[in-house]
Specification:
Helix content is 38%, strand content 23%. By secondary structure, it is α+β, with helices and mostly antiparallel strands. Strands 1, 2, 3, 4, 5, 6 and 7 form a 7-stranded antiparallel sheet that branches. It is elongated, with a radius of gyration of 24 Å. It starts with a strand and ends in a 6-residue tail after the last helix. It contains 6 helices and 7 strands; from the N terminus they run βααααββαββββα. α2 packs across α4, α3 runs antiparallel to α4 and α5 packs across α6.
Length: 214
């Protein structure tokens, strides 16, 4: 869940969520996520690695005892070597298992030249999409290109429907463009992130048939 700074929510008769305009505080949180290696995810990754490592402690204790008996050697290298091996193995396995499910990539770094990409607009643009609640959709690029409807702010998204924050980045060195779209469900005082997608900007615009993303 992405928590946002907003004005107090006000329920309206036309079933909109709240009347507060998008503030820089909301956009900063969305754009910080594009940089990858977020503190929360790094903490989770390290924690899960340690948990998996401790899970190997009983295995290491048993293995150490067995190998000392088999080798008839109770030296420190044998004792602690077989004790610690499963622990380190568990930490490594836990690290890579968790890492594959996390987006740790810095998307603001240009893949072509490695320079930092900058957003073209001060604020993200806001769109409404037909998806409601927990609905899912296939082929995200095609679906979003065809169904995103520009609105002036989160307050214009109909009750129960989802929206998107869109940000276009441009590399200051080679001119390459990147588009980030964050699918979210508006809620009272915050926006619940459903998924974040990164597309080639020009490919998305060609599929959409127009450029209204900035």
């Amino acid at each position: 869940m992405v928590n946002f700074i907003s004005t107090p929510p006000v329920r309206e008769s036309n079933h909109n969520y709240y009347t507060g305009e998008i503030t820089m505080g909301k956009i900063i949180l969305a754009r910080e996520a594009d940089k990858g290696m977020r503190t929360r995810q790094i903490t989770m990754l390290i924690t899960m690695s340690l948990v998996c490592g401790f899970g190997g402690l009983p295995v290491g204790a048993i293995l150490s005892g067995v190998m000392q008996a088999v080798l008839q050697d109770s030296s420190i290298p044998v004792m602690y070597g077989f004790l610690l091996a499963p622990i380190f193995a568990g930490m490594i396995i836990g690290f890579f298992v968790m890492k594959k499910d996390m987006d740790l990539k810095n998307h603001t770094r240009c893949e072509s030249c490695g320079e930092t990409m900058q957003p073209l607009t001060e604020l993200d643009t806001v769109f409404q999409i037909p998806a409601r609640g927990e609905e899912t959709y296939e082929n995200a690029m095609q679906y979003l290109a065809a169904s995103m409807e520009r609105v002036s702010g989160v307050h214009d998204i109909a009750f129960g429907q989802r929206g998107c924050f869109a940000c276009v980045y441009r590399c200051r060195n080679c001119g390459k463009h990147l588009l980030r779209i964050m699918d979210f469900l508006p809620d009272i005082g915050n926006c619940i992130e459903k998924h974040t997608y990164y597309f080639d900007y020009h490919s998305f615009c060609r599929l959409r048939g127009k450029n209204d993303l900035t």
